[in-house]
Amino acid sequence: MANQTLPAYKADFLKAALEGGVLKFGTFELKSKRISPYFFNTGEFYSGKLVKALSAAYAHTIADAHASGLLDFDLLFGPAYKGIPLVATATLALSQLEGGKYDDVVYAFDRKEAKDHGEGGNFVGAPIKGKKVLIIDDVVSAGTAKREAIDKIRSEGGVVAGIVIALDRQETLPSSDGDAGGDRPSAIGALRKEYGIPIISVLTLDDILAGVKGLISEGDIKRVEEYRAKYRASD
Ligand SMILES: O=P(O)(O)OC[C@H]1O[C@H](OP(=O)(O)OP(=O)(O)O)[C@H](O)[C@@H]1O
Ligand SMILES: O=C(O)c1cc(=O)[nH]c(=O)[nH]1
């Protein structure tokens, strides 16, 4: 059974991620080139059961942040490609919460390459102009893809209200003079500071370590704890 210190939707999401092989333990090279003892791949959420757990977890996270006044939005935006199924399923799961309170929330996504025939253009879904836009994506590594998404939304006349991701790894970006960890901010912290927007996650690395006891080996837990101690971000 997952650890009871996490809210039920987080514990269910973590359990589904472990059972579905989305959250893996071993040796992985990150986009940043850092070697990590764990990896979280939302591209592996491809069964109905996993999509249900993933979309419900996004919907709960968004609704909680909305209820606490942290987020206000009327359009969800999923950056191509992996953001596309995430935004469509999160919109559905959100509309299934709280008796239709979110039924009028709409979604849109972009194309990586503009379409030059048919309806043409770079965007699919609801018009972005004048909307409060919440970006839905999987992870932040360097923040480059999120900066691109923010630029695209702004150039369409939308106002970026925040970003929701599946996992905050809570780690520093590697420094240019070696990768010794240290007291530095995360890529998420840098984005928050740059744009002044809320960035929230369904799970954090702290949540994973609080919830996996008894579900994975003690050796894997120790390696992830050591990694967290070495690379923990200052924000
Ligand atoms: O910190 P960031 O710069 O935002 O990078 C992280 C993003 O990069 C990858 O997507 P990618 O942009 O490669 O597109 P994909 O969804 O087509 O894999 C990954 O899935 C994240 O969404
Ligand atoms: O930093 C990355 O490249 C990365 C880490 C992670 O846990 N999941 C992912 O999709 N990318």
From TrEMBL:
Species per Swiss-Prot/TrEMBL record: Podospora aff. communis PSN243
GO molecular function: orotate phosphoribosyltransferase activity
E.C. numbers: 2.4.2.10
InterPro entries: OPRT, Or_phspho_trans_dom, PRTase-like, PRTase_dom
Family listed: Belongs to the purine/pyrimidine phosphoribosyltransferase family. PyrE subfamily.
Keyword Glycosyltransferase belongs to the record: yes
Gene Ontology process terms (BP): 'de novo' pyrimidine nucleobase biosynthetic process; pyrimidine nucleotide biosynthetic process; pyrimidine ribonucleoside biosynthetic process
Chemical reaction(s) catalysed: orotidine 5'-phosphate + diphosphate = orotate + 5-phospho-alpha-D-ribose 1-diphosphate
Pfam families linked: Pribosyltran
Domain Phosphoribosyltransferase: 57-176
Keyword Lipoprotein assigned: no
Superkingdom in the source lineage: Eukaryota
Quaternary assembly: Homodimer.
GO cellular component: cytoplasm
Keywords (A to Z) from UniProt: Glycosyltransferase, Pyrimidine biosynthesis, Transferase
Principal EC category: transferase
Protein name: Orotate phosphoribosyltransferase
Pathway it works in: Pyrimidine metabolism; UMP biosynthesis via de novo pathway; UMP from orotate: step 1/2
Chain's role: Catalyzes the transfer of a ribosyl phosphate group from 5-phosphoribose 1-diphosphate to orotate, leading to the formation of orotidine monophosphate (OMP).
